[in-house]
Design a protein that fits this description.
By secondary structure, this protein is an alpha+beta fold. It has two domains: 98 residues, Glutaredoxin, CATH 3.40.30; 103 residues, Glutathione S-transferase Yfyf (Class Pi), Chain A, domain 2 (Up-down Bundle). It has ten helices and five strands, in the order βαβαββααααααααβ. Strands 4-3-1-2-5 form a five-stranded mixed sheet. Helix 4 runs parallel beside helix 6. The longest helix is centred in the middle third of the chain and has 28 residues.
Length: 222
């Protein structure tokens, strides 16, 4: 079996924040995968067979192990290779601290963000209150970014990649409000990622896999 044929397979959805951060970690770690882009209204039977819950991302490794949580995909990628030390492996308890921050945003902030997005979409009177619930978490990030260039230190980490897609979503809800909000460091941090080569590559629009059944090799080199 050739090296290309032995690549892991990643089922992904271009604009899904969870799939987005998985692709960012794969890019940053220098891994190669066969990328299979899909739409939620037409999920491949191959994906549903290995992960019946039907959400992305889903990573199938060459030994047929299935990883279908975005954070687990990120950790898998950096376990293979971490050339820029995103896991901050030299510091004791660094990973536990990073996972605590990520879990706070995944389990709390994300729920408030969804309420905020719905309030804007349906013109709910609770819009300002829902935004304020999100701001409690953003204020903490602003404090962190006043201390160093990235969320954990002066070097990028797992936390930065994990949170970028959700802060991006927040900034798009009320764009004009966001641009004048009291979070200048957060805007600078986010813009740095959105204007990066990594994000451009991660957000490239590829043909839908079900249309041609042709795997795309995705990596920082492809």
């Amino acid at each position: 079996m050739s090296e290309i044929m032995a690549l892991p397979v990643l089922y992904s959805l271009r604009n899904c924040p969870y799939a987005m951060r998985a692709r960012m970690a794969i890019y940053a770690s220098g891994q190669q995968v066969h990328l299979r882009d899909l739409v939620l209204s037409d999920k491949p039977a191959e994906m549903l067979q290995v992960s019946p819950k039907g959400t992305v991302p889903v990573l199938v490794t060459p030994d047929n192990s299935v990883i279908d949580e975005s954070l687990a995909v990120m950790l898998w990628a950096f376990a293979q290779s971490d050339p820029q030390n995103y896991l901050n492996s030299s510091q004791p308890n660094a990973l536990a601290e990073m996972l605590t921050v990520i879990n706070l945003f995944d389990n709390e902030f994300k729920g408030h963000l969804e309420k905020y997005r719905c309030s804007k979409r349906y013109h709910e009177p609770s819009l300002a209150e829902d935004r304020m619930q999100c701001e409690r978490y953003l204020a903490d990030l602003e404090v962190r970014l006043n201390k160093h260039q990235y969320l954990m230190s002066d070097e990028p980490s797992l936390v930065d990649l994990a949170l970028v897609p959700f802060i991006r979503q927040f900034g798009r809800v009320e764009r004009q409000w966001y641009l004048q909000a009291p979070y200048p460091k957060l805007r600078l941090w986010l813009n740095g990622y959105l204007q990066s080569r990594m994000f451009s590559k991660v957000m490239t629009q590829y043909p839908m896999w079900l249309d041609a059944k042709q795997d795309i090799v995705f990596s920082c080199k492809a």
